Amino acid sequence: xxxxxxxxxxxxxxxxxxxxxxxxxxxxxxxxxxxxxxxxxxxxxxxxxxxxxxxxxxxxxxxxxxxxxxxxxxxxxxxxx
Length: 81
Description:
Blueprint: E1 3-8, H1 13-29, E2 33-38, H2 41-46, E3 54-57, E4 60-64, H3 70-79
Parallel strand pairs: 1-2
Antiparallel strand pairs: 1-3, 3-4
Helix pairs in contact: 1-3
Active site: 12, 15
Domain Thioredoxin-like fold: 4-77
Pfam family, one: Thioredoxin_3
């Protein structure tokens, strides 16, 4: 099963880094992920993200504001399997 991950943000360096962190954590876990960057401000607001970057996994917002913790990211992806 592919895990659907969305990274919300305006396309800044932190957002790019967050997307790469998701890909790296998925590779470490051997999980298949689909990572989509969402840069549309209306879509970001509708997702409930008030501080970027934000991350949703399979439609559930799990993080907003700053870079995520590696261990937490791996936990979120493991839980989504």
